[in-house]
Design goal:
With 275 residues, the chain is an alpha/beta fold. 42% of the residues lie in helices and 23% in strands. The protein contains 11 helices and 7 strands. It starts with a helix and ends with a strand. The structure holds S-adenosylmethionine.
Amino acid sequence: MKTIRQETVENYSKRNSDHYDDPTNKNFLYGKKTEEFVKSIVFNNKEKTVLDIGCGTGFVFDILGEKIKDDKIKFIGVEPAEGMLEIAKKKYTDYKNVEFKTGTFSEIPYNDESVDKITSTLALHWVPSIKSSLKEVKRVLKPGGSVDIMLTEKDDGDSFKNPIIAAMKKHLNFKQIMNAATLSQRLSKNHMKEKLLEFFDENDYQIDVKNVKQQIFGNFDDHMKWWKSRSEQIISEIGNKDSFLVDLKVELEKIKTEKGIPFDLSLLYINVKKK
Ligand SMILES: C[S@@+](CC[C@H](N)C(=O)[O-])C[C@H]1O[C@@H](n2cnc3c(N)ncnc32)[C@H](O)[C@@H]1O
């Protein structure tokens, strides 16, 4: 039997990849925040290798834009979902300095101490174990290297929780709802910092973890576009997805304000660098 996490990856491949590059997903909510985060990443111009983990369709490289054209730097994307990876590979076939490989956070297909910078956006919360993921990050990072990771914080999407659970109750039993609810890792800022300290010594590394919060409003269609690209896996066990979406619309309309339907973003921005 497949684990629910294998289903997450399969769903990213089969369904989510079809609409992941939809402009609403890229320019709204998580997409917009990803762009802000990636643009804030500091490069020291000594990097020879940049590794993006859980690269999906290559969004981080899309945002880096001109920098990707610097052929003195090798850019590597690692991703477990084949459907996402195929889209990324097609975009960058003409770039000799860009390569993509199948892999996960806990199995990064690169040698020890081989990478100058590791980036990742909105993938680390999908891993089965934060500990084995950070162990791998530390293993492949060169001693003087740096890490920039963005992931969801434990309170992310709080305003959406009740409507989603109410709609789920019409389609799933208690155990299935609990499975869906525990699908992603939910860490606070302090908990994340504790995990990083297990692998990065504060005497050698500067470790910053920021909790960035923002309430964003949208109409039902806007929300469904990003939701289908990023979260459809949580309803993989629902047979009649169209009927679920009708029920979800009814529930989300109940929390609508004059500004629209709110979503409470709560993200963690991690930066680790040598002191
Ligand atoms: C929300 S998407 C983010 C993709 C891309 N980084 C971006 O910002 O557009 C999450 C990605 O994490 C990938 N993922 C799931 N489990 C993973 C794991 N254990 N290790 C690495 N990536 C994983 C998914 O397949 C998916 O492509």
